[in-house]
Specification:
The chain is an alpha/beta fold and 411 residues long. The protein folds into 2 domains: 147 residues, Rossmann fold, CATH 3.40.50.10860; 151 residues, 3-Layer(aba) Sandwich (Rossmann fold). The protein is 46% helix and 17% strand. The strands form 2 sheets. A 7-stranded mixed sheet has the order 9-8-7-6-10-11-12. It has a 5-stranded mixed sheet with strand order 1-2-4-3-5. It is globular. The two termini are 34 Å apart. The structure holds nicotinamide-adenine-dinucleotide. Nicotinamide-adenine-dinucleotide binds next to helix 7 and strand 7. Homohexamer.
Length: 411
């Protein structure tokens, strides 16, 4: 899916949710624009003595409920439309999950694979210097997203603290644990998805024994690992190079080792190579797209054979595809709910750093479970009340919560 289409499909779901909830036209108009978009160009010193200009941005969508919150993406294919749409999804996600945050997103347009570690550090530090005027612990709190590691977040924290001249751990989340990060952040998206899946299984009485996972990075890799440890059968996984399949279940730790050694999941000796299309069309209990936006659309929704779809990536299923799947009795857990565990635990990290008292892993896990189950119930109830699929219900609940906050502010 092209980024313009992702942006358009985000506006479509905002518009149709407002219509469904009977929300006044002016709120739909307000929510269809980001409040602020900062585009920056900054020079980075390269190891060969030259400089390179880096273009980056920060999109801030809506802050009626609290400070903007959103990750930073790094990559040469990052675009303004993609980052803007993702800032909108963040507002809706935070509102749906009951967090006191608005939504934002950042993007750094650079080929991270072609940078040395020192160059990457200078790119990350430069980004913080460039967006400094629009971020702050009660203004906009960044976090990692694709291709941004906890180490990179550590550099960003350090750069901000150098600028302000004092410690400020609550300026950014996703930090290494030894630098004010929180226990459980790296597996938070995966655990959040699993807690939601457990509710789906309990309430809708569906089977969750076999899994196919698209993407084998932070999110896809960690859910595969957890499911494997729980004794579930992860029969297929893929990355950008293709996928692998084993009907009896893949040995995930061995596959991780294979990917580390070869750079790809393909060619794993205890499995058969498959394409990403084959993975999406697999007959499994749960299909978890955990790579990119726009992978299930009206063009391939008819070919999906999973019993449920856990949308761990941002925007992997569009509204039309979700309707088609719903009509075929396939349960779609929307992204704003399924991958919400990441921002929930980011919120715990922010709260921990503002409080100055470390949370235990057990406290993180118990609180995450509570938030995810409560959010699932609100979506499930809205789905029944409005007689719509869970995808539309989730956006509807999030947007209603934002609009209530705007009304309380007399916007
Ligand atoms: N990391 C987080 O905390 C977090 C939180 C919420 C949502 N998300 C979303 O989850 C998704 C994945 O994020 P991540 O942090 O795991 O990124 P990542 O960069 O660690 O991993 C992405 C994975 O997807 C694979 N991939 C890329 N393009 C692909 C394609 N066309 N087909 C199949 N596989 C492909 C990559 O090879 C890699 O294995 C993104 O949509 C991101 O916005 C991430």
């Amino acid at each position: 899916m092209k980024d313009e289409d992702f942006y358009k499909s985000t506006l479509d779901i905002i518009g149709s949710s407002c219509e469904l909830a009977g929300i006044e036209e002016r709120y739909r108009t307000i929510l269809s624009y980001p409040r602020r978009k900062l585009i920056v160009n900054y020079p980075v010193h390269m190891d060969d003595g030259g400089i390179r200009m880096i273009t980056a941005l920060r999109a801030q969508h809506n802050d009626a409920l609290g400070p903007y919150k959103g990750g930073i993406r790094l990559g040469c294919s990052v675009t303004e439309e993609e980052v803007t749409a993702l800032s909108m999804l963040m507002s809706i996600k935070c509102a749906l999950l009951g967090l006191p945050y608005g939504g934002s997103k950042g993007g750094i347009i650079a080929n991270h694979k072609a940078l040395s570690k020192k160059e990457l550090e200078r790119v990350c530090r430069g980004y913080i210097r460039a967006i400094y005027p629009v971020i702050g612990p009660t203004l906009d709190v960044p976090a990692p997203d694709m291709n941004v590691s906890p180490e990179a977040i550590g550099w960003m924290l350090d750069e901000y603290e150098r600028m302000v001249g004092h410690h400020q751990l609550d300026i950014i989340t996703g930090k290494p644990v030894e630098l004010g990060g929180i226990k459980g952040r790296t597996t938070a998206v995966a655990w959040g998805g699993i807690f939601v899946m457990e509710e789906v299984k309990r309430i809708h009485n569906c089977d969750c024994s076999t899994f196919a996972i698209q993407g084998f990075g932070n999110v896809g890799g960690s859910i595969a690992q957890i499911l494997h440890e729980k004794g579930r059968r992860v029969v297929a996984v893929s990355d950008s190079t293709g996928g692998v399949y084993n009907e009896s279940g893949l040995n995930i730790p061995a596959l991780m080792y294979h990917k580390e050694e070869t750079g790809s999941v393909k060619g794993f000796d205890k499995a058969r190579d498959i394409t990403n299309e084959e993975l999406l069309e697999m007959d499994v209990d749960v299909l978890a797209p955990a790579a990119r936006e726009g992978v299930i659309t009206a063009a391939n929704a008819d070919k999906i054979h999973a019993r449920s779809v856990l949308s761990l990536a941002n925007g992997p299923v569009d509204m039309r595809a979700s309707e088609i799947l719903h009509d075929r009795d396939i349960i779609v857990i929307p992204d704003v709910l399924a991958n919400g565990g990441g921002v929930v635990v980011s919120y715990f990290e922010w709260a921990q750093d503002r409080e100055g008292y470390g949370w235990s892993g057990a406290k993180v896990s118990a609180n995450l479970k509570d938030v995810m189950k409560k959010a699932f119930r609100s979506v499930n109830d809205a789905s029944k009340d409005y007689k719509v699929d869970m995808y539309r219900a989730a956006y509807l609940v999030g947007i209603k919560n934002i609009v209530q906050a705007m009304k309380a502010r007399s916007v």
